[in-house]
Specification:
By secondary structure, the protein is of the alpha+beta class. It contains 7 helices and 6 strands; from the N terminus they run βααββαββααβαα.
């Protein structure tokens, strides 16, 4: 499909105080619409820019992103893009945006604001049906990233209480320092809205592993509806459910209130397990 690209990009920070933590939160966001010679309204009338991206942790604790950026026609994926919207043009636009976009962190009492920008590593390749990077290969990449979290860094898979002693956890020195920095920065008023403490176990990154633009593809709601319809049709076809109208409520079973508390046997067992054990006194029956 013309205009279908894979973007692999890492993030870097200029004059960082805490590079990994700063980068994970103040992620520069590329402009949604960068055009040359067209207004945004004129662009929307000719094509639609769609994207899907997935996040992947590197062992050093920094997230990098793999993005698929696509140019469709004005009516979405079902309509072709205009002739001028080529893969080469889109690749040039992506490279320009990655170079031009920056974000500045808020200044603190003892530290000026930090300028964040995309890293130097940029790999833009065209996705084709039968080339080196096919649509099936991209689907395989996304499936792999869906099963990965921050375990490759060596961090924890659960939230950390600020009162916990980090030395008590089985952590390498590098992720322990990153977690400690999240805790420190999360206590500053300037970074409260980033919820660094709550997401310290993810090294501060609280985003979903996969995000996309509205018109990129189907929605999770539509997928759930299809799954429900498929299950219902299969149950009816195999005779497990009768054929009934859509608005019919089929009662499979019902619950009745049986009471509260323990049964007599459970109560007796509980008393036997919880009553204090009598110790043998000197000169007692055990002597």
């Amino acid at each position: 499909m013309p205009g279908l690209l894979r973007l692999h990009r890492q993030r870097a920070v200029q004059r960082p105080r805490s590079p990994a933590v700063e980068v994970l939160h103040r992620r520069p966001t590329p402009p949604r619409r960068q055009t040359a010679g067209l207004t945004r309204r004129e662009l929307r009338a000719q094509c639609t820019i769609s994207f899907a991206k997935v996040a992947e942790y590197q062992r050093r604790g920094v997230v990098h992103f793999h993005a698929v950026i696509r140019l469709d026609g004005p009516d979405g994926p079902d309509s072709p893009p205009p002739a001028w919207a080529t893969a080469e043009m889109l690749a040039d636009a992506v490279r320009h945006a990655a170079h031009a976009v920056t974000a500045t962190t808020p200044a603190t009492a003892d530290e000026p604001g930090q300028v964040l920008r995309w890293g130097r590593q940029l790999d833009v390749r065209e996705i084709t049906l039968d080339g080196e990077l096919s649509d099936q290969a991209v689907a395989g990449y996304i499936a792999k990233y869906a099963t990965k979290a921050a375990e490759c860094v060596g961090t924890l898979d659960r939230r950390i209480n600020p009162l916990n002693d980090l030395t008590a956890f089985d952590l390498r020195d590098h992720p322990r320092r990153l977690i400690a920095e999240c805790m420190r920065l999360g206590g500053l008023d300037e970074y409260v809205d980033l919820r660094l403490i709550q997401w310290a176990h993810m090294l501060g990154f609280r985003g979903h592993f996969s995000t996309r633009s509205r018109h990129y593809s189907t929605t999770m709601g539509a997928i759930r509806d299809e799954r429900r319809d498929h299950t219902r049709t299969n149950e009816i076809t195999t005779g497990r459910l009768p054929l009934f109208d859509e608005d019919t409520a089929l009662v499979i079973t019902h619950w009745e209130y049986a009471g509260k508390g323990l049964s007599a046997g459970d109560a007796l067992l509980l008393r036997a397990l919880t009553r204090p054990q009598l110790s043998s006194a000197p000169g007692g029956a055990d002597e």
